[in-house]
Design goal:
The protein contains 1 helix and 2 strands, in the order βαβ. It is an alpha+beta fold.
Length: about 50
C-alpha cells in the first residue's frame, strides 16, 4: 500500500522544506503540497 503525504503552508513566504524532510523520514511515496491562504484560493487548482 502506498503512503501519501500532504504539505500545506498558508503563505507564499513560508517554506515546505521541513515538512518534506519529515515526510521522507516516514518513507512517503507521493507528496502533495500547497502554498495557499484562504484569501487566495479562488480560481486556483489545489494540490500540486
Amino acid at each position: 500500500m502506498s503512503k501519501i503525504g500532504y504539505i500545506r503552508v498558508s503563505t507564499e513566504h513560508q517554506e515546505t522544506a521541513r515538512q518534506q524532510e519529515i515526510m521522507h523520514g516516514y518513507q512517503v511515496d507521493r507528496i502533495f503540497s500547497e502554498k495557499l491562504s484562504r484569501a487566495n484560493t479562488r480560481g486556483k487548482h489545489p494540490l500540486r
